[in-house]
């Protein structure tokens, strides 16, 4: 029996994390050192474990979190590209960011934004019909 809350048949988290680090090290070979991969993996697990209510699949979730962090690191170093454009607006008073983003017309972004708006509006109508009736 596993010492983690009586979960029989599960490997200890350290064992799973070491295996995850091996997989990630292969995936990011030449971009990030093996030591960095292992550190990011264990840090990701520790960060998630601090607030997790359920720990059964935490090592697996930590591996995905570590992969996301390693992708971001490799992207910041220019080693891999980003699949879609990313735009960050910074404004101290929050004046004008949303208007600038609304007017920005990059290929596909306006369509996605409009689809999201329609989806949210549909969900609001289904979940809270009274709320959508008061729109101006």
TrEMBL record:
Residues 17-74 form the Protein-tyrosine-phosphatase-like N-terminal domain. It comes from the Bacteria. InterPro entries: Phosphatase-like_N, Ptyr_pPase_sf. Coiled coil: none annotated. Pfam families: Phosphatase-like_N. This is Protein-tyrosine-phosphatase-like N-terminal domain-containing protein. It comes from Microbacterium aurum.
């Amino acid at each position: 029996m596993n010492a983690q809350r009586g979960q029989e048949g599960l490997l200890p988290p350290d064992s799973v994390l070491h295996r995850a680090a091996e997989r990630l090290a292969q995936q990011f070979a030449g971009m990030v050192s093996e030591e960095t991969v292992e550190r990011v993996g264990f840090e990701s697990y520790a960060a998630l474990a601090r607030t997790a209510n359920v720990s059964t699949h935490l090592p697996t979730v930590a591996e995905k979190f570590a992969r996301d962090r390693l992708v971001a690191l490799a992207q910041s170093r220019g080693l891999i590209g980003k699949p879609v454009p990313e735009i960050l607006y910074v404004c101290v008073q929050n004046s004008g960011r949303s208007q600038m983003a609304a007017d920005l017309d990059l290929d596909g972004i306006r369509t996605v934004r409009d689809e999201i708006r329609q989806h949210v509006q549909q969900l609001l109508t289904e979940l809270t019909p009274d709320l959508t009736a008061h729109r101006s």
